[in-house]
Amino acid sequence: MDRDETRTVLERLAAAVPGLQVKGKAMPYLAVNGNMFAFADPEGALCLRFSEAERAQLAAEFGTGPVEQYGAVMRGYVALPEAVIADTARLQALFAACLDHARQLKPKPTKR
Hints:
Yope Regulator, Chain: A; four-stranded antiparallel sheet
């Protein structure tokens, strides 16, 4: 899956949540209360943010390692396999859990 396809998936997920929109041109992402919680990495992987316990469980289930961007490990993020992205019901359930976790994070002030 390339980044444009992943952006389309992000847009579809965001459309189901009022007020949520995909941001970023080079790296499409979703954020709530100033906290990014989902993004498409440069290779086109869909990465979602969870609590550390959920991340560890999902990483073990999917057989994936930590998500790294620009040499730094993105804490709490899991790269979803394409089979999970293709399973609409599972993807929506994971996205709902991810969004719920993001809403519980301490709000960050925006730079604007």
